[in-house]
């Protein structure tokens, strides 16, 4: 078969070919078959990290911005245009996706229903178009062994969703959303997707002045219950994930951040049925670090999957940049390791190339750079995990709670009176004597040393 992309297969070169990425064009840190052990479980790197291509960015994104037209040049374009309305064209793009994954050694992908095929005049026609592309994807998955990390439904692109899908005030639009999700879950079951994601892009409000927030939250919770019940009914065993984001396109998205989403799930008794898909850029928009969101999801037992991208700390919107920050990826991967990996999740590149990186080869470079950023972070985090570096710091920091009335307190026994008896006559100096310096600069310097000592020798 003739090659669709003019780009060679990408291999692990392990830093042995020099520093300049454009000369080496190989993975320096991502060595798919190298084995790593977490919590007694040994698997090759590729099965821990499970990198995934996002169809909406890599296959569909034209690199528009609010001030300018798309710059993308893609090998599937006809006369410079990606003909999104044409079914033959939609089917042809599937071949490009599978060759792209094959050349990069990527095993997973993710899509929204609307990424794949054009809409018809009715949902029935739209589903028929979609099913034709899904048929082809199913066939290709069988032939190649590639897997679907997750799929999802776009309840935000079409104009009918201008005021939301599950939280819309317009009943017919709500019905459409319910029916659309039903079909999407059937696709999840059919393609064996590991997870099913709900990102509530327009499930929030533009203005409190016209919004019955309580009624909308009741609606979306009941909507999620219907989705959960239908997934059970059809025997779909993937995990159901909510993806927090504070805003954009809405002024306020209900699933604002991890802690807000957890409390929503608990309020409506859904915390056993849904986990979370955490995204880097969304964390920034919420005023958090990515590792903060991963930490709080993990501790609640709800870390399901990761959208591996970055924002720009000076920009107040979602730029979905490919990850390149090894400091951040090391700390996110540390949470990932403490989570024992992501059994039904992975690292999905919900990321797009910059508008100025418009050539097909940039799609390859971007994924390679993103994979290496997370493979590097994984290596650094593995070393910190094996050494117990951060766990020892945390253990020592709380050691005064390990004995006596403090240990009893941690076991659920204790009263204000107990602590009063203990502390009442100690002097202020005696108490401050037990307060220790945190040495945060030293901790951060050690983290830098870990990054250097793990990654630096690669290039020697
Ligand atoms: C939007 C976003 C989505 C979801 C899937 O900010 O992250 O692409 O990941 O709908
Ligand atoms: Co995302």
TrEMBL record:
Annotated positions binding Mg(2+) 1: 243, 279, 307, 350
Binding-site residues, Mg(2+) 2: 279, 282, 318, 320
One annotated Gene Ontology cellular component of this protein: cytoplasm
GO MF, any single term: xylose isomerase activity
UniProt subunit comment: Homotetramer.
Free-text cofactor note: Binds 2 magnesium ions per subunit.
Protein name: Xylose isomerase
Reactions this protein catalyses: alpha-D-xylose = alpha-D-xylulofuranose
Organism: Weissella jogaejeotgali
Location of the active site: 112, 115
InterPro entries: Xyl_isomerase-like_sf (IPR036237), Xyl_isomerase-like_TIM-brl (IPR013022), Xylose_isom_bac (IPR013452), Xylose_isomerase (IPR001998)
Pfam family for this entry, one: AP_endonuc_2
Family recorded in the similarity comment: Belongs to the xylose isomerase family.
Cofactor(s) needed for function: Mg(2+)
Domain Xylose isomerase-like TIM barrel: 99-298
Keywords of the record: Carbohydrate metabolism, Cytoplasm, Isomerase, Magnesium, Metal-binding, Xylose metabolism
């Amino acid at each position: 078969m003739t090659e669709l992309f003019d780009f060679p297969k990408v291999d692990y070169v392990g830093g042995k070919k020099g520093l300049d990425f454009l000369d080496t064009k190989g993975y320096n840190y991502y060595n798919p078959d190298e084995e790593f052990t977490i919590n007694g479980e040994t698997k090759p790197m590729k099965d821990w990290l499970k990198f995934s291509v996002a169809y909406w960015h890599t296959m569909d994104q034209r690199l528009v911005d609010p001030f300018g037209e798309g710059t993308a040049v893609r090998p599937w374009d006809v006369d410079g245009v990606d003909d999104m309305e044409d079914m033959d064209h939609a089917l042809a793009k599937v071949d490009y996706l599978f060759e792209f994954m094959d050349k990069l050694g990527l095993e997973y992908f993710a899509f929204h229903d609307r990424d794949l095929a054009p809409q018809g005049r009715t949902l029935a026609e739209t589903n028929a178009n979609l099913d034709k592309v899904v048929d082809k994807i199913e066939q290709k998955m069988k032939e190649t062994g590639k897997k679907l990390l997750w799929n999802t439904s776009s309840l935000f692109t079409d104009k009918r969703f201008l005021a939301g899908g599950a939280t819309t005030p317009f009943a017919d639009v709500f019905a459409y959303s319910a029916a659309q999700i039903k079909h999407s879950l059937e696709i999840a079951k059919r393609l064996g997707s590991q997870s099913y994601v709900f990102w509530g892009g327009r499930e929030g409000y533009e203005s409190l002045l016209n919004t019955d927030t309580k009624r909308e939250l009741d609606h979306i919770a009941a909507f999620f219950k219907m989705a959960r019940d239908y997934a059970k009914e059809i025997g779909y065993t993937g995990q159901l994930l909510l993806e927090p984001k504070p805003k954009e396109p809405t002024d306020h998205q209900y699933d604002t951040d991890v802690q807000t989403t957890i409390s929503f799930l608990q309020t409506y008794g859904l915390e056993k049925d849904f986990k979370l898909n955490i995204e880097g850029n969304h964390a920034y928009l919420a005023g958090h670090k990515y590792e903060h969101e991963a930490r709080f999801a993990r501790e609640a037992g709800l870390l399901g999957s990761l959208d591996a991208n970055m924002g720009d700390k000076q920009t107040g919107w979602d730029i979905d940049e490919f990850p390149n920050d090894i400091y951040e990826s090391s700390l996110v991967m540390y949470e990932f390791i403490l989570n024992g990996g992501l059994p039904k999740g992975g690292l999905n590149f919900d990321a797009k190339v910059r508008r100025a990186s418009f050539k097909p080869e940039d799609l390859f470079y971007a994924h390679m750079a993103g994979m290496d950023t997370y493979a590097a972070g994984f290596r650094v985090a593995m070393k910190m995990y094996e050494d117990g570096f951060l766990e020892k710091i945390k253990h020592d920091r709380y050691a005064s709670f390990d004995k006596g009335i403090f240990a009893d307190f941690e076991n659920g026994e204790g009263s204000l009176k107990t602590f009063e008896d203990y502390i009442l006559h100690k002097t202020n100096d005696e108490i401050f004597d037990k307060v220790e310096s945190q040495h945060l600069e030293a901790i951060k310097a050690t983290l830098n040393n870990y990054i250097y000592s793990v990654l630096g020798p690669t290039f020697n």
